[in-house]
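Marked as duplicate of an earlier ticket. Keeping the data here for the record.
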Amino acid sequence: MNTLEAALKYALRGWRVVPIMPGDKRPALNAWQDLATTNAETITQWFSQQYAGHGVGIATGESSGIWVLDVDDRDSLHDLEATHGKLPQTLTSITGSGGEHQVYRWPADGRTIRNSASGILPGLDVRGEGGQIVAPPTVHPNGRPYEWEFEEVLAYAPEWLLDLVCESDVLEPPRSKLRTVSASDRPGDLWAAATDWAEILGARGWQLHHVDRQGERHWTRPGKELRDGTSATTGYTPADTMKVFTSSVPQLKTEETYSKLGFLAAMDHGGDFSAAAQALADQGWSRPPERQPEVEVERQALSDAQPLPVWPVDALPAWMRDQVDAAADRLQVPVDLLAQLGIGALASVCMGHATVEFATWSENLNLYLYCSMHSGAGKSPAEKAMVSPLRKWEQGRRQDRAEDHAMECAIWKTTQAKKKKWDESVAMGSKQQDDPEWRELVLKAAEPRPMPFRLTVDDTTPERLVQLLGMHKNLALISTEAGLLDMVGGQGRSGSSVNIDVYLKAWSGETIQRDRKGGDDGPESTIVENALLSVVLTVQPSVIMKYQTSNVELSGRGFFARFMPSVPASLVGTRTFGSAVVPGVEAETYSTRLTALADTLASATGLVLRPDPEAAQMFYSWCEEMEAELVPGRRLATLHDASSTIRSCTMRVAALLSLADSEWKTISAEVMGRALQIGDYWTEHAVSVAGGSEDVDSRHAEEMARVIIEFARKHGTLDLTPREVYLSRRRGLGLRSVEELVPGFERLAARGWLTFTEGSLEEIGINRARVRARLDPLTLDSLTESGEPTTASVLTRAKIRYPKERISSSSSSLGVDAPSEPINGFLRALTETEPEDSDGETFAAELGF
């Protein structure tokens, strides 16, 4: 494998690569931390043209998802393992000097790993955030190449090793309380409120570089040219703080966050906040010492959100409905989660074998679905209950075709060998290229290598997905992780454009074309026609919020509009133990019916289902009712982009329900009524999710507020610090910084649930700032064990059922008593709490699933 091939391979794994100077171990790019990339075109240009003959390096850190233990002294490694335990086998390369690069996955709990030289033991270095390693097949300055010793597993580091290499976060010791001072009384606060960062930094020679899409301002330090990049940002948190990247300003620390007062203290007063505040007071930034009586904030509810409807399970075919109900009781998870997975499994076996058509409508039967729930809420055992029959069927079909596949491969290999021998004969002049036999051989040799049967995939890149669709035509991507969204949503940050074309086109069966520069044979082009993809994801609410509200590419091009959402209330905190039961006859019936349908459709193509006249009229009326609500100011206005896909998916699910009932031609009015109930459900949940940026901010604020309250309840205290809450919940909720709690503290303070006894909201996350708060004593009394108000009916799973007869077309298609304002029930899913420091499906493991 040459350097270019290796670099492209690393990039496919999500590792950012960079060219390495020949005969050296340093990157060839000055700003390599910013320029390292996974973009295939850039990499190809580097290693085939501009940096041909260079080595390849891999940038370590969170953006690549890896860190490295650099072993130069094996005796130190032996001592380390003798003290703490043996390290797991993981991806390892042998360096040119005979050392090792042990590659580990980036910590999943939000901790940060920095570079350090012999920070553990002599001869054991760490390559983390901002670091890089030289990778195979680069040649070491001594002439020896780097080589992979073990490539099969990329492991997580054990906890004890992470404790040694990660930045430590230690709870602050108890402190004596200071006099409570309102933020408006402080010289620093008065000055900060009246002075913009542009005035503060401009006076010291800093230059504004640019303003990004999130509104953060990027600055270049004095003495550095604008073309050389940025040195800090302002607007980093809601408190408008400064995040420093440069190490060239002696008074400021790299990767530290500063308030305006903190910046002034660091620059002019040696970090002394009191001295900085006194200097401002001497300049007139102060108010008379007399304090105005504090106005008591009337205690208000944290949220006015109404609960979203529960999945209309009665709309499912009986053999699936029974499994959903029984599994929901057995696993103690919402029926919504199981129903979304069940419909996704049904779409996976039906897509590509049938379509639904009438009038101008023509729809394939694949679906994109997601269910948004926190970790620890039972996603994995639910996926097993509803999808394992599909995976077992796939495995069985692959085994049934094993002999045929072996023969196909043998014929293909024989053809390749014949083609090679013929080419050699042509080169020697013993055969001619215009021979008809040669033409026939060329065409057969150009056929792709036969592949074993495959239906499901879990984690794959967009580029690989194009290849798989070309091989298999119909695929189902079913995952309980956020890999797909992290991949398509995160590419823009690693230097390449977001590649979502395959997901957009495979939803509707459009032609997919991928072009590459290719190798010696010239450009390569992959064309995939009539391929379909079904996607079923169960992901955390924070992931949906992160990408649906902030990634312009994903939302603007209709990526999320294709997904039918489900955001049920979590049951964490209300479940019971000790009463686990094994799956009953309903599980066997579900598996039998699903696999029987898959067997029947496996050899069928071209089935066309059409609604009968009554069913068609029901669907038209439903569409017209939705259309009337899409105008600006009406209830469904936020679904302007998603309404067409909701209609399409509702028609698709009508056909799926018919096939599940063994009806191959006609969609009846009864089936259409059931499908419209499901369409109503998706509509309400889509309204909740698409509430707009202000609604998203509100949902996040309430989620963080409940996290703070739950911390206090579990620890039996009313007094707390933001840092204590952050350290307690960062793993379970994936918090990356204490600043993410700011909206929660702001919500609690604004609604009378909390007061600050030391410091202020604006100082949360500021280096060396002391912030402490106290909750209203009524806060804990008014909450149940699950963190919900006692009046909320969330302690038991209400099995809400839709009427079996569809409401008349003159009523609202979304319910007779539908509220007039959008329902932000997404909050319900976001704000349910989970066990502290939950690492996953622990509850399901205790039940034996």
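See parent ticket for discussion. The CA atoms of residues 219 and 405 lie 60 Å apart.
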